[in-house]
Amino acid sequence: MLKLKKSTTGRIFGLVASRNIAIGGMVLASAALLFGGWGVYSVLQTSQLTLALKQTQVALDYAQLNKTQALADLQRKLDADQQKMALYARTLGQMQARISRLDQLGSKLVDVASLDRSAFDFGLEPAFGGPREQNSDLMNVEAGLHETMQHLDGRLHQLGAQLTAVDYILEKKSSAKSARPHAWPTEGGWISSRFGARIDPFTGNPAQHNGVDIANRYGAPVLAASRGVVIFAGKMPDYGYVVDIEHGHGFKTRYGHMGSTAVNIGDIVKHNQLLGRIGSTGHSTGPHLHYEVRRYDKVVNPRSFLPRG
Questions:
Q1: pLDDT band at residue 3, thresholds of 50, 70 and 90?
Q2: What is the Rg, in whole angstroms, of the alpha carbon atoms belonging to the chain?
Q3: DSSP code for 268
Q4: 51 lies in a domain?
Q5: pLDDT band at 248 (very low <50, low <70, confident <90, very high)
Q6: Domain count for the chain
Q7: Residue 31 domain boundaries
Q8: Residue 130 within any structural domain of the chain
Q9: Given Cys at both, which of 75, 106, 127, 283 links 238, Cβ 3.0 to 4.6 Å?
Q10: Hey, which residues does 245 pair with through a beta bridge?
């Protein structure tokens, strides 16, 4: 009985062991299949995420490029607008300076002529009229500047008309003889280049000389050829430092290439009054005075207005 019992137990143990091994194998196979499927799914998910990330990056790069181009366009427009504003500002400054000079000149002319200031008040704003227009939301800075320039232009026209009237009255009150340039325009010196056709000293080509050149030493006084009003004092292209004088009765004189000036726009000067000093500024080869005479805005030979000897 002992042998039978032992033999039965061994077989039962073997059967149990075999079944356990089979079950373990199935479990392992199932686990392997599960993990393998998860691995494939993970690889697919990773690939999809990588593709999505690349697409997102491309979209972001494209958006950044568009943003950069838009910013560049805005910057170019801003630069162009700033250049335009600078041009307008320079133009307005020039017009305002011109108005200031005309105001000063007009006031001094009124004083000299002993005119009624209520009739020639150069400080008053010009009179304008017309229908009132509503401000538009579309009005920009450029339109505002254009309107300001038109306003200043109207002011200049008004001042010009006033000065023309003053000049006419002054002509009636002054004598043509005293207005005529007659004095030698510097202390010493000699005529080094005459009026009319000549050879340009810089180019060697024939050229028209609208005045006479009076050679003199540096710093020699430049003197007014007759009494009058200074209508310009400053720098000009080619002429260097220049003084222009309005003498009345159509006479004007110009003194160019000076080293310095001693008068200002609007100054009333007498004949032989100091205007500046001999120099060599502008289109010049050495110290001298360029002297011009005009009659009703036409150049005439200054030699006819210079004293002999």
A1: very low
A2: 48
A3: E
A4: yes
A5: confident
A6: 2
A7: 1-121+142-171
A8: no
A9: 283
A10: 230, 253
